[in-house]
């Protein structure tokens, strides 16, 4: 039998009388290191509902649900932690200075049902008055107005959004469903497709 080396004896004594390198989790909360990528979390105040996070998610852990049948159409962004690989692409590609969704330090994600690990954020949707197509979340449109400034006055829908941001009293126009479009209708809340049809109809071009 070989005798133990002095180096091995030294390591054994050091480990016996020194503090362990590991933490005391789960008996004491563990505080991850800086820039630790834990569970992503939406910030309802800063998220604009653009859906960029869902588009870049490689594991499809974020879903977009547009409910236009509700009295007030809404968009829901839903994050499923059970599918998430915590890559951080959602925060890296967030258009609002990476603040709409952030990587938290939450790592203890034990659960029995997938629904227990999900969270979501909702935004009011703007839909076309004629065909009910989704134009976009109101908050996202307001973000665009702020970004492009005076150039927003070149777009009919953004003009209306800009006016509402100043809390001006705007009388909603009559419904456009099943009615022929004309050029004046481009200043109402209609989608790009219906706006194009309005221009073609005014120019007497068959649609």
Strand content: 15-25%
Name the overall outline.
elongated
**How is the largest sheet built, in terms of strand order?**
2-3-5-6
Distance between the termini: 95 Å
CATH class descriptor name of the largest domain: Alpha Beta
- Following the backbone from N to C, one meets helices and strands in this order, namely HEHEEHEEEHHH
User: Would you tell me which CATH topology of the largest domain applies?
Assistant: Alpha-Beta Plaits
Radius of gyration: 27 Å
Number of strands: 6
- Total of domains: 2
Uncertain runs are none
Q: Count every helix, treating DSSP H or I runs of 4 or more residues as helices.
A: 6
What structural category characterises the helix and strand content?
alpha+beta
How is the main sheet built? Answer: 4 strands, antiparallel
| Reported CATH architecture of the largest domain | 2-Layer Sandwich
Q: Report mean pLDDT, rounded to a whole number.
A: 85
Proportion of residues in helical segments:
25-40%
What would you say this structure looks like, in words?
Helix 4 (138-148) crosses helix 5. The mean pLDDT is 85. The chain is of the alpha+beta class and 207 residues long. A four-stranded antiparallel sheet has the order 2-3-5-6. It has two domains: 32-125, Alpha-Beta Plaits; 128-168 and 179-207, no CATH class. It contains six helices and six strands, in the order H-E-H-E-E-H-E-E-E-H-H-H.
